[in-house]
Amino acid sequence: MTDKYDVIVIGAGPGGYVAAIRCAQLGLKTACVEEWINKQQKPALGGTCLNVGCIPSKALLESSERFEEIAKHNADHGITVDGLQIDVAKMVARKDKIVNQLTGGIEQLFKANGITWLQGRGKLLAGKQVEVTAHDGTVATHAADNVIIAVGSTPIELPIAKWLDTRIVDSAGALDWETVPEKLGVIGAGVIGLEMGSVWRRLGSEVVVIEAMDDFLGAADRDVAKSAQMQFKKQGLDIRLSSKVAKVEAGDNGITVTYNDPKGEQTLLVDRLIVAVGRKSNTAGVLADDCGVQLDERGRVVIDGHLQTAVPGVYAIGDCVVGPMLAHKASEEGVLVAEQIVGQKPHINYDAIPWVIYTHPEIAWVGKTEAELKAAGVEYNVGSFPFAANGRAKAMDQADGLVKVLADANTDRILGVHFVGPLASELVGQAVIAIETECSAEDLARMTFAHPTVSEAIHEAMLAVDGRALHAVGKKRK
User: How far is CA 325 from the centre of its chain?
Assistant: First the structure.
């Protein structure tokens, strides 16, 4: 047995490292266990999000969007460029530099806050002891008064499409290609599949996305999903719904994907394949049989309403528990647990957690969809406003899409706000504030928004709830 801590956090992703920092801020002696080895074969903090997820994917999305802007959209501005090229290796190197800067920044935050980084794989034993197996195989055991399990998630590998060198990969593998595939297949039209497909389509790949579900973006509001699907089609992203993969074969001429759609069996030949069918909790081997913590049927840690397991003083947060697998949700849960440990009474409003898909156009929402409100029997009013009628969006050449507001028919309280269009990832923050503070649509309709800005579309959508949008013709609500 080595040092004893007030708190040991297992996992240093956006949930775990934030939890560790907040615990240290509150005066708790804190250690954090992390096993990640980065691309440079060095230990790194930040988990999936910073190393091979949120951050690197956004870096590539930014680079590819700039390339496409110059290649396809600048001529209308009177800007022409001859001999345009993309140095993919340099683009990837920039992405790696950003990742290293941010993960290194977390390491500095750990040092500044006096957090001990225990490098290796953590395992919870009985009695709130944590076994850490280092990369060289040595094992040490540490004790704590409190343990926070924040082990995150891992990509799901399909038995019929196992990873194969650089040809059949998960989203992480697709971040490091240094050449553009001529034809790319993507299994899964969720957030990861759409974002990665968008990167390589912009750089010149012919991209086909195969999705088993009948509906596109089933979690999103139907109007938003329909608008996004139409725009992706215009861009050349070939999304095939109701298509279930039956077989994947790698040969000398490429990768053959056999799938079944409503017309029967189909085949698709691609150069490379991204498998993005979802993620699962990274709990394998994390819990000793006698530790007292239980897993559900999906491998998630069982918790109560306060994120505590069946063992007092042992908590779990983020992707390894029930709820959406979102980095910001994990971070806020980490803060909540840290503050609970010292006796504070924090709270998370799970109805005010935003979702974002960083495609072009961006897709974002917070709160309820129409389908959810109908299923719950809630009476509501709808207000929507197209970016086509927004001056700033027009000037930006990003006038496709809309803002849609759902408000309670009796109280006018905002229940959901949905975006597809420019800067949706930033605009949704205004909607989060509105829902968290229990604003009505009338509250925002009476506020003054700067002109010209894309955020005026939010103002107009709020006005439209009562049928009085100023820059679009709508039906007056009775």
Answer: 7
- Choosing from 135, 347, 451, 471, which is the catalytic residue? 451
A 10 A CB-CB count for 342 gives 14
> Using an 8 Å Cβ cutoff, are 41 and 67 in contact?
no
For this structure, is 459 an active site residue? Answer: no
Peptide bond into 452 cis (omega under 30): yes
Please, which residues have CB within 8 angstroms of residue 137's CB and are 6 or more apart in sequence? Answer: none
Mean predicted confidence (pLDDT) in 455-475: 92
- 388-444 tens-digit pLDDT: 999 999 999 999 999 999 999 999 999 999 999 999 999 999 999 999 999 999 999
- Say how far apart CA 336 and CA 98 lie, in whole Å: 29
Q: Is the pLDDT of residue 475 over 90?
A: no
Backbone angles phi, psi at 340, to 5 degrees: -65, -40
Give per-residue pLDDT as tens, 105-156: 999 999 999 999 999 999 999 999 999 999 999 999 999 999 999 999 999 9
